[in-house]
Each structure stands twice: as structure tokens, then as C-alpha cells.
Amino acid sequence: MRNFSLNIVTLFLFSLLVSNGFATSIKDPNIDYNKANELYAETKYNEAIEIYEQLIKDNMLSTDIFFNLGNAYYKVNDIPSAILNYEKALKLQPDNEDVIFNLKLANGKTIDKIEAAPDLFITSTWNTLVTSKTADSWAYYTISLFFIALILFVSYLISYQILIKKSGFYGGLFFLILGLFCWLMAAQNTAYHERSAEAIIFTETVTIKSEPNTASEKLFTLHEGTKIKVLETTTDWAKIKLPNGNEGWLRTSDIRTI
Fold it and tell me: Which of 48, 66, 191, 228 could form a disulfide with 39 if both were Cys (CB 3.0 to 4.6 A apart)?
């Protein structure tokens, strides 16, 4: 009996040690995030960048991390990396005013000032509406509106009062249509980003070619920090398009996708 009790105690202590070791082996990402913010506040930008980059490699993808990383790169005058991370932050939260403002500051330091070709008003307005929220946000609205519509339809079915039945039916119909609209926005947002692969140029100066080979005609020159749309890629080359409609080829090693 005494040996049995001793074994139980031994097993308990061993389990405790193992659990403590397991717990300490899992790092809390919030601790690293706070540490990076502290380093940033102490103007130790390069050290903060290392931690923010590691958090992203560990799949900690958030608007705040991309935003803070962009700010840290901006402070060390790495403008292409700052723009890249501001753009990634906007992919997650398109209406974040702080990111939009800082991205504008960073773009102000780039050499290339490209005027966008005018879109049709309807096309521009539609794209602005579709990208005003992320696909996840539109999906969240869809589920919420469908749930409200369901409750109203149930009230229509179980109520005997005419006023409640009418409110339930027409209210449910309204929220159902609104939910379908948000579902359409979510689908359009996903399709928009799938056909709009974008990248930032990281080479200081790059010559755009007419074909994907070094012997082809030189079309124009771009500089680091410029945002481009990627139309297609081969092993070493990418066909790009600028907001003004100009197209050409550059090496994939010159860019990083957003």
C-alpha cells in the first residue's frame, strides 16, 4: 500500500514537471508583440522589426502588426518594406485611417508618381464599395442579417397578431435581401483580390522590358516603392501593369507580392 501511494505521488510530481515544461515551451505571442512595441517606443527599430517579422512568420497576421512593422521600416527609411506592410495591413482592414495616412506619407517618398487612368464612375464606385470591407467582414454581416431574417420569419409563422405577422414577414424579407447583398459583396471582394495580384518594387531602379528576356526592347523605368499589378508570371519574369495602363515585363526578383 505504501509503495502504491509512493508511486502515485511520483507520478503526480512527474506530471507536474512535464506540464510545467510544456507550458513554458509555448511562447505567448502577446509577450513578443508587447516586447516589440516597447523596443519601438525606445527607438530600437531594427530590433522591433526582427520580432514583428518573426510574429508574421509564426502566422500572427493582424492589421496592428503589419502597421507597426510598416512604421518601424519607415523609421529606418526602408520605404519599399514600409509600403509593402502598410498595403498588407489594408488588405486586412481597408478602412483603417491610420494605415491610409501613413501609406500616403510613405508613397510621398517614392520617385515614381503615376497618374491612374480614369475608370468609369460606376466601375470606380462599385470597386470602392466592394473593397470597403474585407471578405470576412462581408461574410460576418451576411450571417448576422440572415439570422435576424430567420427570427423575423419565425415570428411571422408563430404569431397570431396581424401587426407582428406583417412586421415579421416584411422585416424578414428586408433583412434577407440585405443579407444576400452582403453575400454578393463577399464574393465580389474575393474575386477582386484574386484577379488583382499586386506587388511592390524592391529594386532601386528597374527597366521594364517588352518581352520576358533581357534582349527585348526597353520600355520605361520604375523605382523602388512603386506599386504594380501583376498580370502573369513565368519562372523568372512577371508581366505587370501600371495604374496608367502601361504594361511590360520585369524579373520576379525585383518585386514582392502584397
Answer: 48
